[in-house]
Amino acid sequence: MDIGKVPMEVLGRLLSKVKIKDKRVILGPQTGEDAALINFGDKLLVAKTDPITFATDLIGWYAVQVNANDLAVMGATPKWFMATILLPEGSSENLIEAIFDQILKACEDLNVTLVGGHSEITYDLPRPIVVGAMMGEVKKGTQILTSGAKTGDSIVLTKGIAIEGTSLLARDATESLINLGVNIDFINQAKNLLFNPGISVLKEAYLASKNIAVHSMHDPTEGGLATGLLEISRSAKVGMFVEYDKIPILPECKFICDTMKLDPLGLLASGSLLFTTSQKDADKIIPLLRAEGITSSIIGQIKPPQNGTKILRNGQLENLPIFERDEFARFLSS
């Protein structure tokens, strides 16, 4: 298999072997769902684990952010974090401390408590890997699932694409972009997308879940917006119609993707929140988000399953593209 997520079909087959015997498990492992739900009285414990495997100077900070996002889209509040830090032979004490400090800073910013983890130097590892595990809680009955999308819902996307992937390309391919004639000031601007508008979706997830009836919420990450949309479709067993021209593609993303011949729809999309709601509630939440400095757009509509997952692009109605691996991973392996 290529670098990237295990294909949904393979993962679905493997997860079908899981038998949940503990009745407290409200939601176990399912493709498309962002976290597990466990009954703890009047609240549900929400649990998620996600690794950071790409090379980055912010790997500890990343691990906290992406795991927190996966809880936020369930309507939950992230509370407790654990991290396993795996380091190559010869790693310096300064590197270990830098990763640890990044984790502490990110936890502090999100009001999350670091409660444990593990660290070790291991063999045959080319770069550090951080595996994060985030836990939080949500009041029972207020949880939001990817599978909750309903026919007729509007599909809303916050901020734009692809914040994470564009910033990582600018950080990891600086020399290549310079050689392609891209201005260094523009590259630095793209690098800063991690912080402005940022990859956290906690604020918009909270605002949406508290102000309107959100039917489905999802965090599009690896495989980009297209994969996030397909995961909603498959989880909720619905079709969808998406208009490419209504998708807010950040100018930095468009330019860098055009320059490197990558498709923005398949590029790491952390920082954008996908959710579905009624047209009435979509019209209500967009100005509320704007008032808090968060842009959002209606990019399509949930359709009956027999309609399939379609996108109107360049005047042609096509099937929503499937990315077997993220465009960032394709760049790394090229």
What is the molecular shape? globular
- Estimated share of beta-strand residues: 25-35%
CATH topology of the largest domain: Phosphoribosyl-aminoimidazole Synthetase, Chain A, domain 2
Number of DSSP helical runs: 11
Distance between the termini: 15 Å
CATH architecture verdict of the largest domain: Alpha-Beta Complex
SS-based class: alpha+beta
Please identify the top-level CATH class of the largest domain.
Alpha Beta
Q: What is the mean pLDDT?
A: 93
**CATH H-level homologous superfamily name of the largest domain:** PurM-like C-terminal domain
Order of helices and strands: HEEEHEHEEEHHHHEHEHEHEEEH
Strand order of the largest sheet: 8-10-7-11-9-12-13
Helix content: 25-40%
Structure description:
With 334 residues, the protein is an alpha+beta fold. It has two domains: 8-139, 2-Layer Sandwich (60s Ribosomal Protein L30, Chain: A), CATH 3.30.1330; 146-333, Alpha-Beta Complex (Phosphoribosyl-aminoimidazole Synthetase, Chain A, domain 2), CATH 3.90.650.10. The protein has helices spanning 8-15, 59-72, 93-109, 163-172, 174-179, 184-191, 202-211, 224-236, 251-260, 279-291, 327-333; strands at 25-27, 36-40, 43-52, 77-88, 113-122, 129-139, 154-158, 216-218, 239-243, 274-277, 296-303, 309-313, 316-319. The strands form two sheets. It has a seven-stranded mixed beta sheet, with helices on both faces. A six-stranded mixed beta sheet has the order 1-2-3-6-4-5, covered by helices on one side. It is globular. The protein starts with 7 loop residues before the first helix and ends with a helix. The model has no long low-confidence stretch (mean pLDDT 93).
